[in-house]
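User: I'm putting together a teaching handout on how multi-component assemblies are represented. Below are the sequence lines for each component of a complex, exactly as they appear in our records. Could you produce the 3D structure of the whole assembly as C-alpha cells, so the students can see both representations side by side? Please keep the chain order the same as the input.
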Amino acid sequence: MTMKERITASLKEFGLPRLIITGFLVLLLIIAPFVGSDLPTQISNIINRFSWNGILVLAMVPMVHSGCGLNFGLPLGIISGLLGATISIEMGFTGGMSFVVAILVATPFALVFGSLYGWLLNKIKGGEMMIATYVGFSSVSLMCMMWLVLPYHSPNMVWGLSGKGLRTTISLEGYFDQALAGIAQINIGNISIPTGTLLFFALLAFAIWAFLHTKTGTAMTAVGSNPKFAKAAGINVDRIRMLSVVMSTWLAAVGILVYEQGFGFIQLYMAPFYMALPAVSAILIGGASVNKASIMNVIVGTILFQGIVTMTPTVMNNMIHMDMSEVIRIIASMGMILFALTRKTEASR
Amino acid sequence: MKIKEKFNLRQASVPIMFILICAVCIPLSGLSPKMLINEIITRMGRNSFLILSLLIPIMAGMGLNFGMTLGAMAAEIALILVCDWQIVSVPGMILAAIISVPISVLLGIFCGKILNRAKGREMITSYIMAFFVNGIYQLIVLYLMGKVIPIKHSSIKLPRGYGIRNTVSLLSMRQKLDNMLAINVAGVKIPVLTFIIIAVMCFIIIWFRRTKLGQDMRAVGQDMDVARDAGINVERTRIISIVISTVLAGLGMIIYLQNMGNIATYTAHSQIGMFCIAALLVGGASVDKASIGNVFLGVILFHTMFIVAPRAGAYITGDSMIGEYFRVFVSYAVITVALIMYETNKRKAKSAASMKLKDAQDSEETQKSADAQEG
Amino acid sequence: MDKKRQLIFRGAAILIILAIAAVMFVIGRGHTIYFDNKTAEYDGKKYESFYKVAVIKDKEKVAKLADDERGMADLMGQTLSVTLEITDEKGADPHSAKVSMPIPYSLDGIVINIPELMAGLPAEAYMTEFVPVATSEDEEEEEVVIDEFEITDDM
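Assistant: Of course. Below is the structure of the complete assembly, with chains in the same order as your input.
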C-alpha cells in the first residue's frame, strides 16, 4: 500500500461529511477573531453547551454497543427525567437538593420505561431505529396529555389562571438552576467554566467506560458486533440488549436534568420531540457509526456539534450579515446521519 | 389458511379500533351530520391524492415513504414562483405542476440513490432524508429567493429584501379546482373535478401494477435477490418507484394547497408525511401491503377522528387541548403499532423460513444434524 | 431503431409540456383592474365623472361606483371585456356600453379612468399603472417561524 492509498483509505474511513464539518469548525475558529467576535466568549460558550449536552450524547453509547443502533427513542428517557424534575419540585424540594431528588425520582421511571422499551426492541430486532423514533414520538405526545391531567399543584409550575395543568416552560430559579455548574465554577475574564457539570459528565463517562471493560460490558460489545457468536458463547443476548436500553434510558433521564440545570428551565410538552436528532448527529460527527461508538466519539462529537451551533450565528452574522446558522445546522447534522445510515454495516441481521 | 385468517384479523384491527373511537366521539362532538360530512368530503378531496403517492414504494418493498415530503417541498417552491409571476387560477396550478415535476424527479433520484445504499433501513433513512432536504428547502426559500432567484412582489417577500414570508397567499387559486364542476347535494359541496382527478390517478395505479415495470417492482418488493437473478435491474426499479412517489406527492401537494388557499411556507410540508402515513395505516394498510381501498377508508376514518377528537375531548374534560394532543398521540401510536406489527411478522416469517430450511437439511443429513444437536 | 423512436417520443412529450407551460403563462396571467369614476384632466380638457357606474364582468356585477369612487376586479388573461352601466345624473335612465381592451402583460395592477375611457381617449390617457403604497406595517421585520412542532387544525 502506497502512502497515497493509505491516506485515501483513512480519509474514506473518516468520511467526507465528517471532514467537511471538522474543517468548517476549524475555519470558523480561524475567522472568528478577524470578523470581530470575541474568541474567549465563544470558547466559554462551547464549553458550557458541551457540559449541558454531553450526557444526552453519552446516552447513545450503550445501545450502539449492544447493536440496538442509534437511540432515536431518546425522548422516552427524557420524559423520565422530566417526571423526576417536576415531581421533585412538586414535593417541595429546593436548591441543590431538588436536583438530587429529581435524579432519584427519575431513576425508577427510567428503569420501568427502559425495560418496556428494551422488551419491545428485543421483539423487533433489525428494525430498532424506526420503531425507536416512533416510540419516542408516541410517548412525547402521550405525555402532552399527562402534563395537563396529572395532579400537579405547585404554583410555580401550573398555569396561574386555571390552577392546573403544567406550563410549557418552568423556571428553575430557586430550584436546581446551576446546581452542578455552580460547584467550583471558574471565572477568568470572559471565560466561565462550569467545573461541577464537567466533573459530573466525566464521572458518568468514566463509569460507562469502566462498565464496558467489565465482563458484562465486553459481553455487550460482543452482542453488538456479532450476535450469533455471542449466543453461541452462552451470552443471554436479549438480557444484555435490555440492560443496554435501560442504561441508555437512564442516561437520557439524567442527561436532560443536567441540561435543564444549565439552561435554567424545564421545557415540557412538544419540546423533547426532536431532541434525539442533535444527540444522534453529535455522536456520529464524533466518529461513531451505527454499530460502533466510544466515549471519545461522544466528547469529540459534542464539542464539534456544539461548536458549530454556537459559532455559526455570530461569525456568519458578522461576516455576511445573514444568520444562516439554523439552516447550516440542519443540513450538517442531517447530512451526517444520512451518511452514517448509508454506510455498509450489518444492515440486516 | 388459518394463518391467513389470523393475519387478516390483525390487519382489520386498526380500522375497527378507529371505527369505535369515531363512534364514541361523534355524538360527543356535537357536530351536525351535515357539517361532519362536509368536512370529511373536503378533506377527502384535499388529502387522497397525497396518500395515493405512498402506494408505489410499498409495492416495491421500500416501506412507508417518509420522503414524500420532498415532493411536497418541490410543489411549494413551484407554487411560490407561480404566485410571484401572478399566474392565477387553474392555469397557475397546471404551470406549478409542470414546474414541480422536474424538481420532484431530481429529488426522487437523489432520495432513491441514497435509499439504495441503505437497504433494510429505508424508512429511517427516508425519514432523515425529509429533514435533510427540509434544510436545503429552507436555504433556497429563506436565503436564495429574492437574492439569486428573482422574487418581485413584496407581498410574498420578507421586508428585509430576500426570503419568503411565513405565509404566501394563494387567494387567486383558492379552491378554483374544487369549485370547477362542483355540485351541491343537500348542502354538502362535492368537488367533482378533484374527485375525477383522484379517480383517474387510482386507475393509473391499477394499470401500472399490470405493466412490466409494475410487475418488476412487485418482484423486487418480494425478494431483491430473486428479482436480480431474474434479470431485473433492482437498483433502477427502486429509484423509479421513489421518483414516481415523489412526483405524485408534489402534484398531491398542489391539490392540497389550492384547497387550503395559502402556503405556510416553513411548516406546511413538515407534517404532511406523518399524517398521510397515519391515514393510510388507519385504513388497514401495513408496511408491505397497501391498496387503494386502504387509502379511502383511511382518509375517512382518520380525518373523522381528527375533526371530532378535540371537540369530544373538550366536552369530556373541559379542555380542548387534551383532544388536540389526543389525536396527535393517536396518529403516532398508529404508526408505531403498524411498524411493530410489520417487524414482528417479518421476524416470524424469517424464523419460519429458516425452520423450513433446517427441516430440509435435517431430512437430507439426518445423521449429521443429530450429531450437531448432541454436541 | 426502437431507441431512436423512443427518443423522438420523449422529445415530443417534453416539447408538448413546454408548450402547455407557455400557454399557461399567457392565459393564466392575472391582473387586478381598478375602475375609477373620477373627474380627470387630459390635454387641458376636463372629463367629468358620472353619477353612478356599474361594472359587469361575465354577467356578474363586480363593482358599483358612485361619483368619485374606485372599484376593483380580478382578470385572467390579457383582454378585458366588461359592460359598463352608466347613469349620467340622478334619476336619468342608465345606458350601457360594452368595452373591450388589451391589457399589457407586464402590469399587475391597472387603473382605468371611466370618464376618459368613455370619451374615447387613447389608452395612455385612461390607463395608468397601479402602484401599491407601502404601508407602515409592511416595513416591520417579520420573524420567520420554523416551528416544526405546531399542531395545525387543518390537515
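A couple of points students might notice: The two ends of chain B are 37 Å apart (CA to CA). The mean pLDDT of chain B is 88.
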